[in-house]
Amino acid sequence: MKRFLQTTTIALLLLVWASICGASAGTIKIGALFSVSGPPSFLGEPERNTAKMVVDEINALGGIKGRKLELVVYDTQGDATKAVQAANRLIKEDKVVAIIGPSTTGETMAVIPVAEKERVPLISCAAGSKITDPVKKWVFKTAQNDGLAVAKIYEYLNRKKINRIAILTVSDGFGSSGREQLKANAARYGIQIVVDDTYGPKDTDMTAQLTKIRGSQAQAVICWGTNPGPAVIAKNVKQLGIKLPLFMSHGVSSKKFIELAGDAADGIILPSGRVIVADVLPAKDKQKKSLIAFVKDYQKHYRAEGDHFGGHAWDAVMLLKGAIERGGDSPAAIRDQLERTVNFAGIGGIFTYSVADHAGLSKDAFVLVEVKNKDWALVK
Amino acid sequence: MNRELIKFLLLVVVVLLAPLSVSEGYLLNVLVFVGIHTMLALALNLLLGYAGQISLGHAGFFGLGAYISGVLTVNHGIDPWLAMAIAATTVTLMAFLVGFPILKLKGHYLAMATLGLGIIIYIVFNEAVDQTGGPSGLSGIPNLSIAGITFDSDIKNYYLIWTATLICMGLALNLVHSRIGRALRAIHDSEVAARVMGVNARLFKVQIFALSAGISAVAGSLYAHTMTFIAPASFGFNFSVELVTMVIIGGLASIYGSLLGAALLTVLPEILRTFQDFDIVVYGLLLIIMTMYMPGGLVQGIPALLSALWGKFKRSPAAHA
User: Fold this and answer.
1) At what angle do helices B298-315 and B237-250 cross, to 10 degrees?
2) Which of A187, B8, B172, B216 shows its CA 20 to 30 Å from the CA of B51?
3) Which of B154, B234, B277 sits opposite A80 (nearest CB)?
4) Does residue A316 belong to any structural domain of this protein?
């Protein structure tokens, strides 16, 4: 036993050594922080998969100006402390030229001071609008701001002459950011929030909140959360026989939601990026080419449907590629070139960064979709 | 000079000189976290290792320290040092009051009660959005500064954190070798016997619980001011369990064991990152192997391993031929 242990220890140490030395010269190193495990793994896993896939493809086509990319991915487990440690490691030990991620707003906010101080461009894949508002010199993001999704829903409500709503948001980062935006934008669209309630990320029954909504003056319900909570709400709404129109956030715009909610999903309307409706988009849509390529690729590599979250990583890698092609591979040059990105048709939308805008998207990044017959349909 | 003092001074010298051999900024950053985790493991060890009372809620006290510091400095513009003092006092006082009813419980029930306490604190961080910023965290916490020096780089933070850690270690060493330390160990072995001998077991338990919470809060404040950002996810149940693991892997009822445990559990995941997706599996395996073959923790296991290796080396001269 002892001999075995010794041999294993030595073998392990050699492995560690070998992988440390494995980095070859001449490549361009890009760092990535994704929460591949832990509660936000539903974000981190497709992001990691996509980033690897895109980098492999770029390399297979000869890299950028003949130089291969090398992607260093660290798992942050959704924990801000781990994200900061990993970011420090990427910058100071791996000496990456830019960082993609992290997956969540909390982790991103934690990593921002590091990136700013060390002067390394960071392209976050998280949605929170405070990441780029106010603008930070070295920080960009690819996920659509929650405010844009809210605007899309409110515009629709205006058209339907609905002005009293109930909101039901999950008490995590995604939900609280959505709640903030829903409340902040309501007045501008002449909308009154008559019920403002929350639920816990692990709750399995929301009839209490919905009963309260049923007894109110609300004409529509907006729910803001990620799976599985919204599916429970959809089912509860059907069980309670509530006839009010139900709106969801882009947090559930994946097939998984329809699977979870089953028949109860029918008729639900939500804002979403274009990925899930790539097939039915009109041919003149500028993003269509990128979208179809991404969805097909992801299907081929991972036998699963490409989603928004993977899309955020796709956009981040491609934006970086563009910046490096134009301006070289020093962190400062990459930052400057990122800021000059104009009309890049990616997965999340059409990106145009500027000195005053590091989020780069308009509300056209979203389309409204409705669940019909267990599939998505565009709302005209 | 006694041996304890020499051991401690040796550690002080090592800590002071360590940054000289660490050229890379990244490792220094990891060492900062080793310092913070050492304070926490130490605090928990006083309670768990010496007094024999479990707590699965220490991440909560750590978080309270961090959040009180963070909220007071960011939202109310209070001086960071003052905020830290307020945090430490409040948490100590709170633990003292809560300790009386909770520490009446024993074994699993105590574990449950402290677990509940930790979860309540965690929920408050999440729900008090107006003050704490909710799940997406609180940013813009100022760095500590003294006499014109702002602790804003890894090397400065290293000395700040480790000064605090060494002070805590010194105090703890003093404490466990005093009358109180002996009383705690007596309570650990048999509370009834200790009370028969005239030890006020209940008061001692509550006091050590409060002290333990207070040290955790100081660690939390330091964490907040060095990271400049805090989010609830760092103070959840998982972290409480990680702290218990640090104490057990390092060695129960050993101050130096806390240092070893904290160092191992902080550095190991960093080393294992090279295994990519398998790091968690390897991490778990190593922990299982260590608890199986080093039941006394690293503090007893490492010397035993070294002497065993040395014995083998001497017995087989062929080994170095």
Assistant:
1) 40
2) B8
3) B234
4) yes
Q: Do residues A72 and A125 both lie within one domain?
A: yes
CB contact under 8 Å between B26 and A88, yes or no, is yes
Residue A279 pLDDT class (50, 70, 90 cuts): confident
Angle A78-A80-A83 from CA coordinates, rounded to 5°:
80
- Say if the Cβ atoms of B129 and A173 lie within 8 Å: no
pLDDT digit string, tens, across residues B272-297: 877 767 777 888 888 898 888 888 88
CB contact under 8 A, A106 and B30: no
In Å, how far is A133's CA from the nearest CA of chain B?
13
One domain for residues A36 and A73: yes
Judge if A102 and A196 occupy the same domain. no
Provide the token pair at B287.
């922990």
* pLDDT of amino acid B136: 79
Tell me how close the Cα of B231 comes to any Cα of chain A, in angstroms.
Answer: 6
* Residue A173 contacts residue A108 (beta carbons within 8 Å): no
The whole-number average pLDDT for the span B128-139 is: 85
> What CATH number is attached to the domain comprising A169?
3.40.50.2300
Are A87 and A196 in the same domain?
Answer: no
What is the per-residue pLDDT across A283-315, written as a single tens digit (0 to 9) for each? 888 999 899 989 999 999 998 888 889 999 999
What per-residue confidence (pLDDT) applies to A5? 60
pLDDT tens figures, A3-59: 666 666 666 665 555 555 444 458 999 999 999 988 888 889 999 999 999 999 999
* ipTM score for this prediction: 0.75
Domain assignment present for residue A6? The answer is no
Which residues neighbour B93 within 8 Å (Cβ) at sequence distance 6 or greater?
A: B210
Q: pLDDT-derived band of residue B246, with 50, 70 and 90 as boundaries?
A: very high
Q: How many residues does chain B have?
A: 321
Mean pLDDT of B43-66: 95
Q: Which of A172, A198, A151 is CA-nearest to residue A42?
A: A172
Is the same domain home to A186 and A255? yes
pLDDT by residue (tens digit) across A173-211?
A: 788 889 989 999 999 999 999 999 999 888 899 999 999
Query: Model-level pTM?
Result: 0.82
> Does A51 lie in the same domain as A130?
yes
Q: Domains of chain B (ranges plus CATH)? A: 3-320 (1.10.3470)
Angle, in degrees to the nearest 10, between helices B3-21 and B255-272: 20
For residue A259, the enclosing domain spans 146-272
A 10 A CB-CB count for B182 gives: 14
On whether both A232 and A200 belong to a single domain, the answer is yes
Nearest CA in chain A to B34: A85
